[in-house]
Write a structure and sequence with these properties.
Low-confidence stretches: none
CATH topology: Nucleotidyltransferase, domain 5
CATH architecture: 2-Layer Sandwich
Radius of gyration: 17 Å
Strand order of the largest sheet: 3-2-1-4-5
CATH superfamily: Ribonuclease H-like superfamily/Ribonuclease H
Distance between the termini: 31 Å
């Protein structure tokens, strides 16, 4: 895999985030099948990415997971960009963007800012899932979490290489001595 493109750090971490749903994957054993999606969050300024497992696409699942995963860590964001496929219900009680003073920017599903990164995460995740098939139902549940965290680790490793700075320094504006 190649490196992500260099980015402009004029804005701060968390200013602009794109949200998209990738997958549907299944992990199977002889008597059990686990099915899941992954919700991607990408800070377009720094290329910082997060993934969250989603088992269903019912009405409030995606906005609730957005609030629990991204907003819990990066509460200072200004705008959220997402495709207008109806998956990201922006006017729900699960995540009232307007009340949080976050600008909602629906776009087409061909969002060049995040599609390349989402495709990269999707390819990594698919490769990791195929590399080690589960043997028991318990392994299916652990497999998803393990492979999501490995994918994020690889994405962050790539970001650190491109920026030539650790994510700790970038996020907390501190220098390592």
């Amino acid at each position: 895999m190649g490196l992500l493109p260099e980015c402009d750090l004029a804005n701060t971490l968390g200013y602009d985030v794109t949200v998209d749903l990738i997958g549907l994957w299944s992990a199977k054993t002889e008597h059990f099948t686990g099915v899941f999606y992954a919700l991607t969050f990408i800070d377009t300024t720094t290329n910082l990415a997060e993934l969250a497992c989603i088992n269903t696409k019912i009405k409030d699942t995606i906005p609730r997971k957005f609030k629990q995963t991204w907003l819990a860590c990066y509460p200072t964001m200004v705008q959220v960009v997402h495709d207008d496929d109806g998956e990201f219900m922006r006017h729900t009680s699960a995540c009232p963007l307007h009340d949080l003073r976050i600008e909602d920017i629906p776009t087409t599903s061909n969002n060049s800012k995040s599609n390349v990164k989402c495709k990269c995460m999707e390819t990594m995740l698919k490769t990791l899932l195929l590399s080690c098939p589960p043997q028991t139902p318990q392994e299916v549940l652990h497999l998803v979490d393990d492979k999501l965290s490995t994918t994020i680790y690889l994405m962050r490793l790539t970001i650190s290489t491109v920026l030539k700075v650790s994510l700790k320094v970038l996020h907390f504006h501190v220098t390592c001595s």
